[in-house]
Amino acid sequence: MILERACKCKADIHQLYIDYKEAYDTTNRAELVEIMKESGIPMNLVRLVKMTLANTNSKVTIQGELSPDFETTIGLRQGDSLSTFYLTYIWKR
C-alpha cells in the first residue's frame, strides 16, 4: 500500500531491511567496545557492557538432547535487554 501511494503521489520512498538474526549473531564484541569508547561512552558503562558479554556460555538442543556448555565469543545474548542498545552503536558507525 505504501509503495502504491508513493507511486501515485510521485514521491520518493526509501526502504531499509535489517536482518536482525545476522546482526545479533555476528556482532564482534571487541569492535563494539571500541566503538563505544570512540563514541564517548563513559568507561564505567563500557566496562559494564564488556563484563556482561564476557564468559558467556550456551547450550543447544539437538534431536531433543541438550548439548554440553560451550563458550560463545561473538554475537549478542538472546533476550538481553541491552542487545538493542549495543547494536545502535554499531549501526551509527
Mean pLDDT: 82
Portion in helices = 40-55%
Which regions contain 5 or more consecutive residues with pLDDT less than 50? none
Biggest beta sheet summary: 2 strands, antiparallel
Strand content: 5-15%
Helical run tally: 5
Q: Tags for this entry?
A:
mainly alpha; two-stranded antiparallel ribbon; 5 helices
Please describe what this structure looks like.
The mean pLDDT is 82. α3 packs antiparallel against α4 and α3 packs across α5. The chain starts with a helix and ends with a helix. It contains five helices and four strands; from the N terminus they run ααααββββα. It has one domain. The strands form two sheets. A two-stranded antiparallel sheet has the order 1-4. It has a two-stranded antiparallel ribbon with strand order 2-3. It is 47% helix and 11% strand. The protein is flat. The protein has 93 residues and is mainly alpha-helical.
Q: Could you give a quick summary of the protein structure above?
A:
This protein has 93 residues and is mainly α. It has helices at 2-8, 20-25, 29-38, 43-53, 83-92; strands at 56-58, 61-62, 65-66, 70-72.
Topology, pairings included?
Elements: H1 2-8, H2 20-25, H3 29-38, H4 43-53, E1 56-58, E2 61-62, E3 65-66, E4 70-72, H5 83-92
Antiparallel strand pairs: 1-4, 2-3
Helix pairs in contact: 3-4, 3-5
